[in-house]
Design a protein that fits this description.
Layout: H1 15-21, H2 27-34, E1 42-46, H3 52-57, E2 63-68, H4 71-75, E3 83-87, E4 100-106, H5 114-124, E5 125-136, H6 144-156, H7 165-169, E6 188-193, H8 195-202, H9 206-213, H10 220-231, E7 238-250
Parallel strand pairs: 1-2, 1-4, 2-3, 4-5
Antiparallel strand pairs: 5-7, 6-7
Amino acid sequence: MTEQTTFKDHFSTQAGAYQRFRPDYPPELFAWLAARVSGHAVAWDCGCGNGQAAHGLVPYFGRIFASDPSADQIARAKPHPNIRYLVATAEDSGLAAHSVDLAIVAQALHWFDFDRFYAEVRRVVRPGGVLAAVGYGELQLGGALDQVVDHFYRMTVGPYWPPERRFVDESYRTIPFPFPEVAAPALELSAAWDLEHLLGYFGTWSAVKEFRRSGAGDPLPALRQALVGRWGHPRQLRRVRWPLFMRVGRVGEGV
């Protein structure tokens, strides 16, 4: 059984903030993925958002297709001559059959119709190519700051997360993944942010958007007040970390 049937647009209305405040993926991720495939002609960044993963693929692939069902996200994506952006769903990409060496889904697989997406992967990816589903969960700041963020994540806006968020909390372990898996290395995203950038990142959360839409107000001022006494000067930079998790599979082998 599949768990998603239609495109659920949680991010178009905040596409600009998403581009500005979301963290970048580590270069090591793309180097490792590129080393898993024998061909490097074409890669597909599916559910690309503003194109962060697509740009990470540029050094390794001749051409990158980056697709997202949100026209607003695509409109704000950073252009590159080797990247072609497409407004398309994950389940109906419009790409040619057996044309892709690597398909990557960065922080998006949990929104997809799994059965239909995997059928599209089998159609689009060359036999022996790779599908990589990459995600990251709750951030880490260290010490008392983590306690504040965890309370905000689970208690303040916890009831407002879409049900698909549980797959992220479970590091994608409970998502069906019908491909022979490749063991993945332990990697992480990291950034040096001041307090205002951190709050901007929280503002991109779908749960924060739903909290505001519910009429409950804006949860971020109270969060800022809880953080500022533990942060120090708001312009002080602090290291922010997100451990990555991955499901990586070989397409067309043993399926």
